Amino acid sequence: MTEMPPKIFDMEQLARNRNRAAENFEAFAFLKQAAVERLEDKLMLVRRSFSDVLDVGCHSGQVAQMLRASGKLTSSHSLLQTDISPYFCDIAGRRAPAMVSPAETLPAEPASYDAVVSALFLHWVNDVPGLLTQMRLALRPDGLLLVCLFGGRTLNELRQCLAEAETEVSGGMSGRCAPMADIRDIGGLLQRAGLALPVADADLITVTYPNMFRLMADLKGMGEQNALFGKEQHMARRDIFLRAAELYQERFSTADGQIKASFELITLTGWAPHASQQKPLARGSATHSLLEAFEIEQNDPQKPDQESD
């Protein structure tokens, strides 16, 4: 019997967070845009066009806008956007068809798309392996998966300061920042999902803010605030946040008094298996040993002798 993944994130709370962020999201979409640019960089390396594309976690349609401008869609293409937030879907629908969909269930028949993309959504999914598998099944043979999500180094400074402040003030600690996957773990999930030629890249973006509260306001504007299960049972006291802000300023400030916030973007690329794809040679198929190669080098008759003085 397959074990169900733990329910870390509250999907209803996540939908509420995204609904509240939708109307003014463009003012806070700089990290979404950074993620879209990374997907575009990968897409432009692919020498083909796509006719049927699915965008998972569309926000207000930034991926659709990029795809339409990329020249990578066929003239008769079909592009569908999905999001857990009906408010985001209403806005994204101005750029391409959009529909509300559960976070962990794709509205896709098997082998119905030749590309599935997602920018800054998968880090909220409870069952990432399951969703990646659904994405692979939704792809036609040799279909492309492109994903960008927040990685484990995201908001390390905020996590550290909130945890220490809560321990210091109340003597305990509760979850206030969403856990995020390490690149080694998330990269391995591509193979587990049955994707071929998997690649995982990561880079760290540092953003500066006047103080911790401005950072938290930005997270709210992005729809990236706390959506952990049971958050209502651990409402933070004001003194905890004030102490965390002090610690943040002391430990992670710049020369001009700003604070630094780290965001790790992990970009994933994979392909639905196809017979035409390159495959590693089978183990034991080499015709010469490494030892033979060294012996050839050492005994090379073409190699000139050193001249003597």
TrEMBL record:
Keywords: Methyltransferase, Transferase. The keyword Coiled coil does not apply. InterPro entries: Malonyl-ACP_OMT, Methyltransf_11, SAM-dependent_MTases_sf. Residues 54-146 form the Methyltransferase type domain. One of its GO terms (biological process) is methylation. Pfam families: Methyltransf_11 (PF08241). The keyword Methyltransferase applies. GO terms for molecular function: S-adenosylmethionine-dependent methyltransferase activity. PANTHER family: ARGININE-HYDROXYLASE NDUFAF5, MITOCHONDRIAL. This is SAM-dependent methyltransferases. It comes from uncultured alpha proteobacterium EB000_37G09.
